[in-house]
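Async update (no meeting this week)

Hi team, since we skipped the sync, here's where things stand on the single-chain job. The sequence we agreed to prioritize is pasted below, unchanged from the tracker. I ran it this morning and attached the output directly underneath so nobody has to dig for it. Comments welcome in thread, and please keep replies under the output.
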Amino acid sequence: VSSYSRLPVNLSSDGECVYLSRGTEIIDYAILPALSTDMAYGRENGTGGFACLASPTPGSVNGAGVEISTQPTATAQGVYETAVDVTLTGSGTVYYTTDCSYPTQNSTRYTAPIHLDKTTVIRAVSYEPGKQPSEIVDLTYVVNGDHALPVVSLVAEPDDLWSEEKGIYATGPNASPVNPHYGANYWQNWEKRANISLFELDGTGFSLDCGLSIFGAYSRAYEKKAFSLNFRDYYGAGSLDYALFGEEGLDSYEAFVLRCGGQDTFYARMKDVVITSLVADQTTVAVQKYRPVVLYINGQFWGVYYIREKANENYVAGNYNAAVEDVTLMEMNGSGSYKELVEYAHTHDLSKQEHYDYVCSQMDVENYTDFMVAQMYIANIDLENTRFFKTPDIKWTWLFYDTDLSFNNDNFNTLKDFTNPNGTGGTGTISTKLINALLKNPEFKENFIRRMAWQIENIWSVENVTARVDEIAAMIDQDMKLDCERWGKSYDNWRGSLRYLREFPMYRNQKLPKFVQEYFGLTDKQMKQYGFTLQGG
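Output:
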């Protein structure tokens, strides 16, 4: 064979059938078994039966087939209240490590049960004579963890995490000395092979290989970082087929995020989940589901995190019953058809019904109204994270995303700022053309004011916010003591930071109605008719 072509197709490492056909006639076919990483499959010696091959040989005749050693089995990994003796069983000789490095024949040979009296990661491999080594099995044993939350364990080759040359968690040699240290390793678009396991409180869960990368924006520079977990055929499975959020969520995920609070990481650690979950309860605005867990990295306790849906095209496709290729997801000021819609609204008088009707035909106006009202209420200074999407069956819909820089300044006149014709978002980079155009329509304006009053009374009441803060605090309290100890923070200060979340609506609910009244020039009587409760009457 003097030349060859690579077909533009991908085959699942879980196994798949491949057919060679001429029209409707099948000329040849191959049934691929599940294959390990860097393993080839083809006709043995070029003309024999199909077999696993040690390596691909494009342009040359295949070599002899090879067999793969059977992966070792072990005492079930998970959370143990006391010490555990781990038994490894393999059809060949088993070797293992406890420092998270890849096991080889130079590693410790297994000869007897391994006694563990502290949290340990065991990585094991089996070697059988005349066969290729088995796939590595990654095992985490959390001993004496005393956790009230489910446990997530990440296991990766140590250099892929910590080394200055290639570690995604390391600062590296190219970091700027100025915060947030652009150029650092954790700012690179690097993804490393890892294994993730989830140990539920009832003993169920999953363990799967994945791609691991650092997640977030400025919070990447924090000592405690967030992660993105990506499932690809390259790592063994193209999806995580597990109901991460129970019956309310999806049954399969191609990615998810482990988030620790963004800019709220060392304060309340729950601002975003409090705010977005309250919005999700009573509006159609899209949000990411959440659940708190504790995280271990290579056997080290890393603290309280939240499993969050990843806000990408797959999120939209899964939650809105659409094909991924049909999803258009944008952020900030958008582009293409969305920008054309904004320009239409900006250049046409939306007080005229025909123009307003056209805009309504392109976007979910009710959804947008609740999105903007909620953003104004929480006093978000990070509107650069505005995200929105559409599908052939769904008009432009907004996603409430990354609200860590909110619930801070109860005296922030967001109504005035978010309608500034010169733009908003702290730097003025976020266009205000759409909201300003819509407010010229009497119907939209009327509904906007009523939704503001309704949200204050129903979503953002002191009682409602306090109840949600207390609910989440109770879930994570026991493990937050360990988190604070791990990161050298004060547990009492963490408890104190929750007071600011509870107090924000106390003051905001007094001040925001005044901003509304001033902006729209409303009388006290009109305010009451819209549903506002005015101080002093």
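Quick observations from my side:
The two ends are 90 Å apart (CA to CA).
The first helix runs from residue 158 to 162.
Reply here if anything looks off.
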